[in-house]
Protein 1
Amino acid sequence: MKLHFLSLLLLCSLRSFAAAPDSVYIFTYAIPQDTRKGLHIAYSVDGQTWTAIGQDQSFVSSDFGTWGREKQMIRPSVILDGDTWYAVWQLNNNTNQFATTLTKKLSVWKPQDYPYVSTSEVLSPVLSKADGQFVVTYKTKDGKTWQVKSRDFKTWTGAREVNDYRSNEVKAKVNGTEYDGCITRAPWTLIENLINRADATTLRNRQHGERMADDGNRFRDLKTVEANLSLRYSDAKAISPNLVGIFFEDISYAADGGLYAELLQNRDFEYNRLDRGEWNAQSFWHLDGDGTLWDIETVNPIHPNNKHYAVLNTTNVGAALVNDGHDGIVVRKGEKYNLTIFLKKLDGAGKVKVSIVNGSDVLAETTLSGAVDWKQCKAVLTAKADCDNARLAITPQQAGRIAVDFVSLFPQKTFKNRQNGLRPDLAQLLADMHPKFIRFPGGCVSHGQGLENMYRWIYTVGPLWERKQISNIWNYHQSMGLGFYEYFQFCEDIGAEPLPVLPAGVPCQNSSRGGHGQQGGLPFKGEDFKVKVTEDLPTMEEYLQELLNLIEWANGDPTTSKWAKMRADAGHPKPFNLKYLGVGNEDLISNVFAERFAFLNRGIKAKYPDIQVVGTVGPFFEGSDYEYGWQLARQENVDIVDEHYYVDPGWYIHNQDFYDKYDRNGTKVYLGEWASRNNKWENALVEALHLTNLERNADVVVMSSYAPLFCKDGHSNWNPDLIYFNNTGARPTPGYYVQKAFGVNNGVEYIPSDLTVRGNQDVRLRVNASIVKAENGDLIIKLVNLLPTSVNISADFGNLNGYDTQNAVWSTMTGKPGDGVVTPVEKTKAVETKMNTSMEPYSFTVIRIKKK
Ligand code: AHR
């Protein structure tokens, strides 16, 4: 308390007197008890009494390794060279890497890099500069001391053993606790700036923490609010017609067991422990009955990409191999189901009965026979009764050994009756949103866990049993049944632009597999992999070609392009008309990333200048990935960057001008992932508010998509989501209806308006309007009221000649902030040029006035 008071005094005196020093000492340190907390900074005028900047504030924390405990900053060693601070630190006790970063302003530290060294581990690295070179001296567990050097702080020499280890750490007491750290000097202006930022952070955190639960107090005396709205048609501007789309990622069982209509799980015995520790090729299958044994074999599989198959060895006929489906199998009376199964006689026994069963009831059945070589057998099963929890049973009909693989049970009724298609109810919910684009397949699924787990589009097309399946970063399996062909087809089916997002040649920076972090990315020709990889991976040059091949596959002419011919052979001779290609997802903007992204972006634009490349600027609306991601985007003249933020409701209320400040002529924005951290009506309301602000800025923000989209009950990787579902139905959230309202009522032209709301700043921030003209000329007015009271609007809609003013469609959503179910109520009501209307408390209204 005393120290805090003293610090305050010192701060006040430094801030208010002209005699503030030119520079002060700064002490940079980490908290040894919690190394995840990153780098702290304290300052001192005399080098004796130290004041921490901010409350427990970290200015940079380690981004190495998996989320949580892995991200450690151990013993940061910081030096000042010219006007730049350079830092290195230890990452853990067993990695042959250390971390580097640098800054000029102390507030934003340059993206981190993790150079590899030629010894087994790096302990207590000390940074110094000698003869124009950066020197890192460190220890290994055997007590030896090593040195690596760099001229540019990027490329480091091999490790050389040395005798001399001198730490640059000193001890200093901050807030009563003694820490080890480094002392340098900094201009007072920089420190003052840091202090102001720390103060601003405190205020900002308070604003972002504002919740509607406190409205009773915040708006204690508030009565009905009066407002005026008038439209400024003469200032209309063109906006993106693609503002609202969807982001589909296979997270929380969104694909297998979800949108992808396959009813069986682990249909081709490819599940394994990389998917989930306790899984193997037999998971979700079991033997029911006696007289048969079963095992997994891999010799002469149906395809090298589909190595595992089951062998049933029957002595007494009667037992069945049973698949549990995804939490059971749902069938409906009279519906038809396509059965596919590969069978191979191993010693003469080739006949099996395949049945859909509900306990001992048989709902449908067929008998099939294998051959001496793998034989694809097909049948159509018609269910005799409804069942939500059926199983598929394969019963050998003869004694002997038979091999079984790729067993698929697929409803004929899919969305648009596509083969290998999608669950109609879930797909329809998406179609109903009128999304202008679909981003797929991730998210984190794109960059994957470690180099070998990166999503490679090429392995997701072609016959289902030839697709290369990989584990899902969300801790389950990707059958790839829903692959690029199916994604593109779905986009076409619902009139949405396809937006594939593929890795930038680097896996997730949080990878835990095969070494940590980015693992150095794919090497350029002639370079080595930084970590051991177990299969052939492409060089960056080959990988660029893989991305170019995708464009050819999607858009090319089948008569001249082998890639386009693959598409045509799969059933789609016409081009898919791909316009966008995402490269990278939320990557750490390190040198490793920047080099690879620039290479891919340039390569794509050189061959296909019309393809819009979508880059990435990290997972937050600020910070080093955001700053340096944007810097890289500007430098490389990137068409669009993908911003992400998952923030509290208060953020949306207090950052309504976020995009008003963006450059109108540079790189455009795709707000690819965003949400407000719960799915109550309060959240949907602030999302509606944000969307009105996005519409105003839709000359810069050209696309947006809520994330994540789907979550299957009992399989959640992430909360909140837009749509929850189980095997028989779905529960769209209030946020779903808000997104849908903006998708259905999208504009091509924005009509600015003057909205005057009488009340204080808190009141004014909670009412908004957005007016757009749709492509067919309809006028659409969206009104959001986040207040607990009604708002009376005196509106001047201007000249409505040419509109069907008698039959405007008013769609209103309203509820209590904590409500979990809120749906729109629609009515037809006249509008007039000048009219009074009332916005209900906590409401979102869309008025659509049809063009005659
Ligand atoms: O939307 C869920 C995840 O959030 C995405 O996979 C990833 O990009 C982000 O971190």
Protein 2
Amino acid sequence: MSVMYIEGGVPLEGAWRVQGAKNSVLPILAGCLLTKEPVTISNCPRLSDVDAAVDILHHLGATCVWEGETLVVDAAGANHTCIDQGRMRAMRSSIMFLGPLVARMGKAKVSYPGGCELGPRPIDLHLEALTALGCQVHEGQGEILCQGRPRGGVIHLRFPSVGATENAMLCGVGAEGDTTILNAAREPEIVQLQQFLNTLGAKVTGAGGSVITIRGGCTLHGGQVSIIGDRIVAATLLAGVAAAGGEVQVDGVDWRHLSTVLQLLEQAGCQVRSGVDHIWLRRDRGAPLRAVPSIATAPYPGFPTDAQAPIMAVFATARGTTFFRETMFSNRFGHVAGLHKMGADITIHGTTAWVRGVRRLHGASVTATDLRGGGALAVAALAAEGQTVLDGLEHIDRGYERLEKMFGHLGAKMERR
Ligand code: EPZ
């Protein structure tokens, strides 16, 4: 298994177009099951999670053909209703296939999804949503059997779950009657999913707000979609420059999708300028970053839980103490062990962390234990004195398209061996 060698202390400079968003393309890939005509997905990131979704589509009988950064999916031949445990455990988003599969086939048998170890990853909200649409859902022996064509209905999510909102949308679009989703998640990826489904002929409104309505009974045709820029990869790139010092222009991302991150980096002492589809950031290495009193993760448009780890790596060398509260997952501090090895002064109490800034971090051998935690360790290594050896790259490659290419383009000494 390869590892990453990172020489810290090198200021970063340049411009980078950010990859397509993992968390947008994954539900869109599942949504391709809803039409028997080809779907063209451009700006599609090359990630292991995308490979896992393509593998599920192939298993179900669809074809997927790469043409450069464009993926063409044709689900006309989809004729399977089961997804085996191996494919389901490959990632969290495998559960996203349940809604469209039962809408297309009238039944589906899956097992429980995998994904980053961030604490319990229940799917009760997903199953309650499909039940509200008239599907019969049975769980037993580690399997989930979903039967009956969805008929539309009202779904009231107890929590604005991103995945449950997306599963409900994908199933609702394939339902006969109309559907209303209350307390829906509001992420930009959900807005793009609505746009994608409407491109195929669906009638979905309200995404970006808490109430989404879906007109049922529409037959979907094929279409094209270009995946929005990945706001979390952009946040990780900006965090790397904020930590190491330098100047970067990030292209291909809507600054509004990560405005809470930009606000924090400005409060820490970075200069930030945003345009329609780019963000410029500069951090003067001579001026230490300043801590901010507290940072709490929250559903969009709050501070994104996926940016918590990379941003914590920035504040590990800020002047003062920053208090982090992780409200979305019970075990999302896996990166702290590695930051400790690099000299960070962080104390964890349950889902809160006190980060007391130190003058410098130093290189160490560290291991990524989840996707965004891996991003955080790379950010810290860019700021650290000396060499860091980072392994666990299989986690990083799930969501970052060649992390070393992105930072290397800005001058970082980051090499995969
Ligand atoms: C999506 O995961 C993202 N993944 C995650 O990004 C992200 O951290 C998360 O949303 C929150 O923004 C994808 O989009 C592929 P949730 P998801 O359902 O849908 C609880 C990354 O790094 N919950 O919004 O799984 C759950 O336990 C990944 O790119 C239930 O209780 O997140 C959690 O506490 C990591 N029952 C909270 O809701 C359910 O049925 C938020 O989960 C579903 C969720």
Protein 3
Amino acid sequence: MNLARAVLSCLMASFFFASAQTLTDPLATSETLNLYAKLSKLSGKAYLVGHQDALAYGVKWKYEPGRSDVKDVTDDYPGLYGWEIGGIENAAALNLDSVPFDEMRSFIKQGYERGGVITISWHGDNPLTGKSAWDAAPGSVAAVLPGQTKHAVFVKQLDAVADFLGRLKGDQGEPIPVLFRPFHELTGGWFWWGTKGNTAEEYKALFRFTVDYLRNKRQLHNLIMVYNTSNGLKSKDNFLERYPGDEYVDLISFDAYQRGEPELSKSFAKSLDHDLSILGKVAKERKKIPAVGELGYNQIPDTRWFSKTLHPVFKKHQMAYVLFWRNAGFKAKENEMEYYVPYIGHPAAPDFRTYYQAPETLFQKEAAHLKLYQKD
Ligand code: BMA
């Protein structure tokens, strides 16, 4: 832990120097600006470790105040909290994973007040077909662009998103900064905004319209915009094929999941290393902050996965954060277990504690020391 403290003080010292990256929203709130500046200083030295839905539920428990699987195992909360607002576009009371939006609002405030960072994704329904985000009907994106048949439906969806994001406030009434990651895994073909049946120009127009609408029309100035592809990147050009432009993106990322047998950990590490190299190069050239948007190995069948597969690769690269996906536990509908962080008693729990101790990984306590929302 002494080493961790040394890294932290070095980090704090470096905050005094101006950052190369600039937030794209010229009217961003001071908390948002400060967070962005500090995240840009993080990448390369240490990174925040996040968990999706951390405070809502874990494996074999739901809605126990103060609980989190990460906390059970490490005695600390994650440094980053991921939340998902799919369902908000239908004025639903619960999101698509059954988290009540009212609870989510209060969890977001808790994480922020503790000094943690908030990131939000949106698996919104397909405005063209009215079916789920996974309904990749060809022409879906074209249909929602200005002047097209489903534009009004889409704008109504965005209004619901803006209402939610605009109501996230801290104790002093200040808007809570959010790393917003809409239309994610954009290089995949499984979502309505994906590569199946939508051109690159259509995707760019969708992203730009969304940012302009939230920022200019709805006057939201607490957003840090995240561009997010899937993994298996072929080249910088491949990563940037659907990139909407430097003035619309603050943070660049990809999602990566290991699947199959633990024997595949070596090849997963190799491909993660490769993807992070591409991401790092783009980040440098474009002056954007790199991060891993979603990550995990369902049920963690490799008990040394965190320290032996992830850690050596992450150490070599720059990123502001990584977000482990949700500990859904048993999903009755699909008849399967889903979790990405070990729970107490899981065979990978000791390894996760080792990963926690590494100087490069920042969880809640260390994140709070960094005073991410304040200027030094
Ligand atoms: C997926 C799974 C699903 C979930 C979706 C949106 O990766 O976790 O169970 O509905 O994310 O959160």
